[in-house]
Amino acid sequence: MGLAIILIQPEIPGNTGAVGRTCVALDLELILIHPLGFDISDKRVKRSGLDYWPHVRLTEYASWEAFLSARQPRPDQLFLFEEFGARNFYEPDYPDDAMLVFGQETKGIPRSIIDSHPDRLFKLPMRSEVIRSLNLANTVSAAAYQALRGKL
């Protein structure tokens, strides 16, 4: 099915729109896990996604559990991105059907999901000590391009 981006309960419509635009550019599926912090028809989603939003391959699930039940991902497919991830995102060899998982802008990935996949936590390196985290849309773009490195 190809590489997918998963946003768990995103809160900021502009970030989701920008991620959708990246997904179109790279031909990736965008999976949204509810509840969302906005209505998917919000103008701000579409403004950030520009006129590309109708081309997003979008799948939505009511919960993480519903996603797991429907998709049944292999453990090696899941790559959870958190600022405190133990492994650098440059390390793994990403399978063609990798699923890159990102949490809420203010809270990150829920603890229950992290606890279920403790060996699948990755981070983007940051050289500055004054930055706590990167913008969600920027992080997704960097991770997606790294996962596709050598495949484009």
Name a few traits of the molecule.
seven-stranded parallel sheet, Alpha/beta knot, 7 strands, alpha/beta, 152 residues, single chain, 31% helix
Largest sheet: 7 strands, parallel
Which parts are unreliable, with pLDDT below 50 for 5 consecutive residues or more?
none
The overall strand count is 7
CATH superfamily: SPOUT methyltransferase, trefoil knot domain
Helix and strand composition category: alpha/beta
Distance between the termini: 16 Å
Q: Return the CATH topology.
A: Alpha/beta knot
Q: Give the ordered list of helices and strands.
A: EHEHEHEEEHEH
Q: Return the CATH class.
A: Alpha Beta
Shape: globular
* CATH architecture type: 3-Layer(aba) Sandwich
Task: Draw up the topology in text.
Blueprint: E1 4-8, H1 13-26, E2 29-33, H2 43-49, E3 57-61, H3 64-71, E4 78-81, E5 87-88, E6 99-102, H4 111-116, E7 121-123, H5 136-147
Parallel strand pairs: 1-2, 1-6, 2-3, 4-6, 4-7, 5-7
Task: Put the structure in a nutshell.
With 152 residues, this protein is an alpha/beta fold. It contains five helices and seven strands, in the order βαβαβαβββαβα.
Notes on the protein architecture:
The chain is α/β, with parallel strands linked by helices and 152 residues long. It has one domain (4-147): Alpha/beta knot. The protein contains five helices and seven strands. The protein has helices at 13-26, 43-49, 64-71, 111-116, 136-147, and strands at residues 4-8, 29-33, 57-61, 78-81, 87-88, 99-102, 121-123. The chain has a seven-stranded parallel β-sheet with strand order 3-2-1-6-4-7-5. Helix 1 (13-26) packs parallel to helix 2 (43-49) and helix 1 (13-26) runs parallel beside helix 5. It is globular. The model has no long low-confidence stretch (mean pLDDT 92).
